[in-house]
Amino acid sequence: METETELKLKEAAEQCEGYRLQGFHCSESCIRAVADALNTELPEQLKRVSSGFRGGGGGYGDRCGTLEAGIMLISHLYGRTTPEADVSDYSYLIRLLHERYNEELGSYYCRVLRPFAYHLSGDAQNCSYVYKNGAKIVTRLLLEADQLIANMPEQEKYGYKKDQTAELCGTGIST
User: At what angle do helices 128-150 and 65-78 cross, to 10 degrees?
Assistant: First the structure.
């Protein structure tokens, strides 16, 4: 018998593939599918905003649209609304999301993932593999998010080192 988590992962993957088959791109499919699987209502504007992240950013081949959809969902659920609010929670979850893409898919770059997915799909030449697995990665992280935040290592918290800002600004490097 499948666990509730396994059912949600399966639902997200199937929904994501369903949206792909309807003609939605990776970012659009993933944000909708994960929100559906987690019973999270999304504003229409957020669905529209997701459109530009397809194909690694308008087809540029940079970060995978499913990863970008995950970042949008993390920000939607855990982002701040004032400049004084702590950035630790969502920043940590987004770093973990990148790590999980690297661990589970081998990359988070569309230009790396697309040829691999096309190879796997044979004559179909599509990214179905990435859509489904990306949706699972995002869903799993969001299901675990509260626990991950509760157990966040102290060094992951913003302001842990007073000189951290100068060291990290614009580099994308975490300590």
Answer: 30
End-to-end Cα separation, the chain, in angstroms:
41
Judge whether 126 and 118 are in contact, CB under 8 Å.
yes
User: Nearest-CA neighbor of 8 among 140, 129, 96?
Assistant: 140
Do residues 80 and 93 lie in contact, with contact meaning Cβ atoms separated by under 8 Å? no
pTM: 0.90
Instruction: Determine the distance from the C-alpha atom of residue 46 to the mean position of all C-alpha atoms in its chain, rounded to a whole number.
Output: 14
What is the rounded distance in angstroms from the CA atom of residue 91 to the CA atom of residue 109?
19
Per-residue pLDDT of the chain (175 residues; tens, 9 = 90+): 899 999 999 999 999 999 999 999 999 999 999 999 999 999 999 999 999 999 999 989 999 999 999 999 999 999 999 999 999 999 999 999 999 999 999 999 999 999 999 999 999 999 999 999 999 999 999 999 999 999 999 998 887 654 455 555 555 555 4
Rg (alpha carbons) of the chain, rounded to whole number: 16
Residues sharing a CB contact under 8 Å with residue 39, sequence separation 6 or more, in sequence order:
none
